[in-house]
Design goal:
globular; DUF3243 domain-containing protein; single chain; 5 helices; 83 residues; Uncharacterised_YmfJ; mainly alpha; YmfJ/YflH_sf; Cytochrome Bc1 Complex, Chain D, domain 2
Length: 83
């Protein structure tokens, strides 16, 4: 997992693969976004940012309220879904 978190490109690829798997297993878009929010909350609490992109995401997460954090999580899903 550390290799995945050390490089933002690796993180996006990892997340993209997980989103694809979730969709192929029949998960709805809303369920995927909710899981992304939960993952974001976990990462915020337990993982130190490893690169500039992660630091920016953490800063956005930290200043956002719950609704804005859901938006950030949804945007991350949308970002990797387009790659």
């Amino acid at each position: 997992m550390s290799n995945v978190l050390s490089d933002f490109g690796n993180w996006k690829e990892f997340l993209s693969e997980r989103v694809s798997q979730a969709k192929s297993n029949g998960m709805t878009e809303d369920t995927i976004k909710n899981l992304a929010y939960e993952i974001g909350s976990f990462l915020d609490e337990k993982v130190d940012p490893k690169n500039e992109q992660q630091r920016v995401l953490k800063q956005l997460w930290d200043v956002g309220d719950e609704s804005e954090r859901h938006t950030v999580a949804g945007l991350m899903v949308k970002l990797v879904d387009q790659t």
